[in-house]
């Protein structure tokens, strides 16, 4: 077997596809953001507006690079980013994400651990809007669009659910005030829920919208920490204090038991509906462990 044939077969292996896809998409986003920062240094725009524009540019670049690369590499239409039904998927996802986060905060409020100190103007939500938009789009393209989708294609939906959820949790171990318990909670809340949302719709718009609404509602509206990180501005100036298992402690509401339970319930509902509609994929036939080619019967 010549070197060209070996290289081709290695490139067909799922881990190679994942690594290459992430490298290409993230590189294009990084280059684009550097360009935006340099461009807006020449303007008089305030930093919050620049950050929002930068977030929009990052979202456009990673969606565009994903669609172009995998459309070329896999020789197929990128149906998971289809514009058909996009608006309904976004609306449904924003509603679900905001409701789940609001229920999480409601439990904290009922436990008398949530106080609203004051309110700000809507312009104070711009920093949270920028962060939530960039994080939601970039993480969903990478975790669900690249990692989950490629693993699922080879090893089936259940293996992809487990592995992508664990990867998502491990990624957040480095966050401020994180812990193994917090990472495990995120694996369930976001890792399982967002992958289940993708399975049910076969669209990335739905998990992107859930992710965005969850983060934005948490930080931009309720003024809480998101995965251990706090923003200086939000619509509501609040004080959250009390038992860590209810409030999430220094990690924020995502570290609470009710956040995990609410998201787990939504995950189970989505998976049950997906099962009834035969949307869960079985593993592909056995493959060569080194090169990824099918093994002849």
From TrEMBL:
Keyword Transmembrane helix (UniProt): yes
Any one GO molecular-function label of the UniProt entry: metallopeptidase activity
Identification of the protein by name: CPBP family intramembrane metalloprotease
Record key words, sorted: Hydrolase, Membrane, Metalloprotease, Protease, Transmembrane, Transmembrane helix
Domain (CAAX prenyl protease 2/Lysostaphin resistance protein A-like): residue spans on this chain: 124-216
Transmembrane segments: 20-40, 52-69, 90-112, 124-143, 155-174, 180-200
Species: Salmonirosea aquatica
Transmembrane helix in keyword set: yes
GO biological process: CAAX-box protein maturation; proteolysis
């Amino acid at each position: 077997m010549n070197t060209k044939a070996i290289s081709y077969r290695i490139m067909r292996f799922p881990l190679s596809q994942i690594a290459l896809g992430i490298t290409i998409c993230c590189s294009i986003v990084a280059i684009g953001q550097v360009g935006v920062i340099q461009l807006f240094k020449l303007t008089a725009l305030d930093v919050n507006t620049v950050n929002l524009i930068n977030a929009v540019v990052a979202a456009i670049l990673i969606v565009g690079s994903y669609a172009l690369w995998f459309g070329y590499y896999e020789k197929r239409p990128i149906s998971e980013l289809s514009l058909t039904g996009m608006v309904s998927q976004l609306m449904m996802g924003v509603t679900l994400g905001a409701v789940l986060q609001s229920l999480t905060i409601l439990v904290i409020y009922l436990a008398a651990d949530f106080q609203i100190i004051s309110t700000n103007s809507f312009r104070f939500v711009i920093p949270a809007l920028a962060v939530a938009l960039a994080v939601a789009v970039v993480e969903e393209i990478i975790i669900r669009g690249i990692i989950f989708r490629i693993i699922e294609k080879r090893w089936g939906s259940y293996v992809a659910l487990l592995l992508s959820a664990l990867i998502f949790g491990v990624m957040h171990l480095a966050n401020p005030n994180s812990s193994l318990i917090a990472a495990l909670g995120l694996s369930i809340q976001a890792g399982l829920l967002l992958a289940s949302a993708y399975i049910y719709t076969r669209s990335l718009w739905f998990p992107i919208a859930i992710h965005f609404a969850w983060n934005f509602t948490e930080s931009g509206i309720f003024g809480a920490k998101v995965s251990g990180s706090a923003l200086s501005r939000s619509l509501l100036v609040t004080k959250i204090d009390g038992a860590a298992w209810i409030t999430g402690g220094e990690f924020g509401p995502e570290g609470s038991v009710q956040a995990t339970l609410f998201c787990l319930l939504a995950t189970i509902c989505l998976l049950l509906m997906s099962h009834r509609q035969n949307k869960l994929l079985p593993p592909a036939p056995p493959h060569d462990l080194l090169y990824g080619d099918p093994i002849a019967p």
